[in-house]
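Tutorial sheet, problem 5. The three components below are modelled jointly, 1065 residues in total.
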Amino acid sequence: MAGIIVQELADAVGGVLFGSGDILITGAASVNDAGPGDIVLAENEKYLAAARSSQATAVVVPEASSCDGKVVIQVENPRQAFSTILGLLASQLGVPSPGIDPSCRIGERVKYGQSISIGYGCYIGDDVTIGDGTIIHPLVYIGDGVRIGDNTVIHPNVTVYPGCEIGARVVIHAGTVIGSDGFGYIPVGSKQCKVPQIGNVTIEDDVEIGSNTSIDRAKTGTTRIGSGTKIDNLVHIAHNVKIGSGCLIVAQVGVAGSSEIGNCVTMAGQSGAKDHVHIDDGVVVAARAGVIGNLTKGVYSGFPARPHKEAMRAQAAYLRLPEMMKEIDNLKKQIEELNRRIADFGGDESGVESR
Amino acid sequence: MAGIIVQELADAVGGVLFGSGDILITGAASVNDAGPGDIVLAENEKYLAAARSSQATAVVVPEASSCDGKVVIQVENPRQAFSTILGLLASQLGVPSPGIDPSCRIGERVKYGQSISIGYGCYIGDDVTIGDGTIIHPLVYIGDGVRIGDNTVIHPNVTVYPGCEIGARVVIHAGTVIGSDGFGYIPVGSKQCKVPQIGNVTIEDDVEIGSNTSIDRAKTGTTRIGSGTKIDNLVHIAHNVKIGSGCLIVAQVGVAGSSEIGNCVTMAGQSGAKDHVHIDDGVVVAARAGVIGNLTKGVYSGFPARPHKEAMRAQAAYLRLPEMMKEIDNLKKQIEELNRRIADFGGDESGVESR
Amino acid sequence: MAGIIVQELADAVGGVLFGSGDILITGAASVNDAGPGDIVLAENEKYLAAARSSQATAVVVPEASSCDGKVVIQVENPRQAFSTILGLLASQLGVPSPGIDPSCRIGERVKYGQSISIGYGCYIGDDVTIGDGTIIHPLVYIGDGVRIGDNTVIHPNVTVYPGCEIGARVVIHAGTVIGSDGFGYIPVGSKQCKVPQIGNVTIEDDVEIGSNTSIDRAKTGTTRIGSGTKIDNLVHIAHNVKIGSGCLIVAQVGVAGSSEIGNCVTMAGQSGAKDHVHIDDGVVVAARAGVIGNLTKGVYSGFPARPHKEAMRAQAAYLRLPEMMKEIDNLKKQIEELNRRIADFGGDESGVESR
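Model answer (C-alpha cells):
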C-alpha cells in the first residue's frame, strides 16, 4: 500500500484538517492496534484518550474534538467518514489489470462489457454474458448461459453453475458455490429418487456473499437473493428460497427449502429456518435461534424461535429450575406437616392423600 | 432448453394425454410460479385449482382428474411421473462432450473407461482409475490412486485426496472435499501432536453429496458412505465414520469421529452426533438435535437428543415455566395462610417452619 | 504404500521386537478393521484380545504384554509409539516432487526457498515469499504479497487472499479460504454500507486448518491464529478474532468478530462465540455451547454457556419438568383439600383464595 496524503483524505470526506497536510497515511487500524502511518477513528472521549496514547499518525474525530500530538480530521459523522477513508485506502489494494488471461478456457458466444478482467485459469462456459468493469479472479468456474452484471467481483475458486444470474456490483468471496442442486428426493421403497433440479439462482444487484457459502438452484423457477442483501461465510441457502432486499444473513445460517424471507431481515449467526416458513420484513432472528413457523414483525430467539421477551422469561426460569425443584420439595413437606397437624385436631387419621 | 413436445412426455410416463400433443414444453415449475411453456404437477384438488388459474401450459394430474384450459397428462402416480418428466427436461441441460481437455495434467498409469469427459484445468494423479461415462467438470483435483466408478459426475472445484474410492453413479457437487485429514491429536505437554491419518474415504454407489461438504479420511481403515445415501451442503463427516445405505444427511449436519449410522437414517438440518455413537437403522434425528449416545429405533429431538414425544413434553413444560414459577409462589402464600389459620385454632405460634 | 519392515519400525520407537524383523508392514488399522500387512495398537487387555483374533500382522503393546501369533513391538508408551509409526507409514504417501509446475502463473518479485513444490494450475501473485520445503498442491490461489514460512503444506483449491501471512510447518486443507472480507456493514437508511476490510490474516507456526474453513481478514490490523492451534473443517473465524496458542477448534465452530480466545482453549464441535467476548486460557467450551460473555477458567456448556456443573443441574431439572408440573398440580389439590377441611373446623366458608 503506497499510501495517501492526509490532506487528500480530509478533502475526500469534507473534513477540517489540523496538522500538516502532506503526511502520508499508509494504513488504518483500531486505536489499540495502530502503528506509525496509520489513521484511526475516535468517535468519543474514551477512544480519543486511546488514540492520544497510540502510535497512530492521524485521527478522525467529531467536530470540536481534538487529539494532542496527532494529525486530526474533524468531521460531522466520523464513522461514515472513516468508512470512506477505508474505502480509499482499500482501492489502493491491487486489483487485476483489465483483460482476459490467455490461460482461460472461454466458451462460444460469450459477450463481454468494457474493461473486464478475467484471471488465470478460469473456465467461462458458452453463452455467458459479463458486464462492464466486472472482475473474475483466477480459478473460477462460470457455467453455460450465466449472466453477470456490471462492476461485479468474483473471487478465486468460486463455482457458478449453468444458467444462474448475477447482478451488478455483486461481490462473491472465494470458495462459494452458486447453483448446486437442491436436496430433493422422493422415497420409492427403500431408495431415495432424485427430483431433478432444473431451476436456477438469481443474485440481485449489490449483494455480497462471503466465502464457502452454498446457494442451491431451484427445483423449478429460481432461488432469489434480493438486492443489497449481505450473506456471510458458510451459509446454506436451499432450493427455491426467496430472500428480500437489504437483509443480513450472518455466518453459518441455514435456510431450508422454499422459505421466504422479507426485506431488511437479520438472521444472526448459526440460526436456521425450516422449510416453507415465511419471515416478515424487518424481523430479527437472534443468534442460534431455530425458526419453525411463520414470523411477524419483531425479535425472535431460542429454539423453537419465540418472541424474544417470552424466550428470555423462559430462559430466566430455566436457570432457576434447580431452585424451583427444591421449593416444590419444601412445599410438599410443609403440606405433610399441615396434614399431620390437622389430623391432630380432627382425629381424622387418614390425612390428605399423597397422589 | 430447447424443450420437448408434450406427447413425448406423456408417452415417457405411460400417461393419457388430453389436448394437442405437439405443443412444446420448455420448462417446469410449481403452480405458483409457472409461465407459458411450463408443465406443472397437480396432485390434488387444491393444486388443480391453482394450476387452472396459473399460466402453465400443461399439467400432470391423477387419473380421472381434469384441468380446464390446460393440456393434461393423466397418470396413476403423478409425483413419480413429474419426477421422470423433470429428468427428461434436465437431460436437455448441457453436459460436457466426451474427451479429455488438453489443458489437464494427467498422471501416469491412469486407466479410463469409455465415453468419459474430463473438463478444463483438472489435475488427475498417478494410478487413477475412471469408469465408463464418468464426467469430471473443470478445475477438479483427483489425487494419486483414486478409483472412480461408472457414470459418476464430479462438479467443479472438488478435491478428492489420494487413495479415496468413489463408486458408480455418484454425484459430488462443487467445492466438496473428500479425504482431508481427520482431526486427531494427542496432547503431549502443552502441544497437540498430530496423529497421522493414513486411511481413506469410500463413497459407495448412487451416493449424492452437496456442495462445500467435507468428508475426512480415516486415521486407519476407511470412512464409509453407504450406497444410495444422500448428503446435503456444508456437512461435516469426521474420520472413521460409517454411514449406512439410503440415509438422508441434511445441510450443516456434523458427525464426529468413529460414529456409526445405520441404514435409512435421517439426520435433519443442523443436527449433530458426537464421536463413537451408534445410530440404529431407520432412526430419524430431528433438525438441530444433538446426539450424545446410542439411539435405537425411533424419532429423536432436542439436545441432548431424546425420544421425540418426551422431548416435546419437556419442551411444552419449558414454555410454561414462567407460569409454573407464579404457581409455586401462589402455593407458598396459600400454605402460609393455612399455617396462620391453623395456628389460630391451635395456639401454636410457631407454624410450620419455612425450610 | 510400499511398506516398511517391522524391525525398522521397532527401532524407530526404541521398542523390543518379538518375531521376525524382516516382515513387511504395508498399513495400519484399528484392531476391528485390520487385514494382513497391518500393524495395530493394543494398549490394554481388551485390545490385546481383539488384536489376537484380528488379521493384523503386528501389534504395538505395553511393556510386559504379549500377543500370541503376532509380531509384537513392546514399548513404554504404546500410543506415542503408534503415532510415530503412523507418521513413518504416512511419509511413504506420495508427496509431490520439488519444482514449480510450468502451468502455474507466477507473479513478479516472488521469492522462493529451497526444495519447494508448486503443483499444477496454481496462481502465485506478485511479491509472494515461499519458505524452504513448502508444498503448494494444485489449483491453489496465493494473492499478492502473501508470505509463507518453511515446510508448510497447502492442499488443493485453497485460496489465500493478498497480504496474509502463513507461518512455518502450517497445514491448510483443501477448499479453505484465508483472508476473505470480514462481515462489516454500517446501516445508512435502509441500505447496508460496506466497511472496507483492509487488514489481513496471520497464521502462526505449526497451525493446522481443516477443509472448507473460512478465516476472515481484519477490518484493520490482523486476524490472528496462534502457534500450534488446530482448527477442524467448516469453521468460521470472523474478522479481528485473536486465537491463542495450542487451541483445539473443532468442526463447524463459529467465532464472531473481535473475540479473543486464550491459549490451550478447546471449543468443541458446533459451538459458537458471539463478538467481542474474551475466553481465558485453558477454558473448555462443550459441543454446541453458545458463548455470549467473557469466560474465566473452567468447562462451560449450554446456550447461553454456563459453568458445566450448573448447566448439568438445569439440564437434569429440565428433563424432570413434566413431572414437576404434575407435582405442582398435586400440591394444588392437596391445598384445596386442606382449605376445605380447615373450613369444616372453623366455619369459615371462603377458604384461602386462589390467586
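Marking note: The first strand of chain C starts at residue 4 and ends at 5. Full credit if you identified this.
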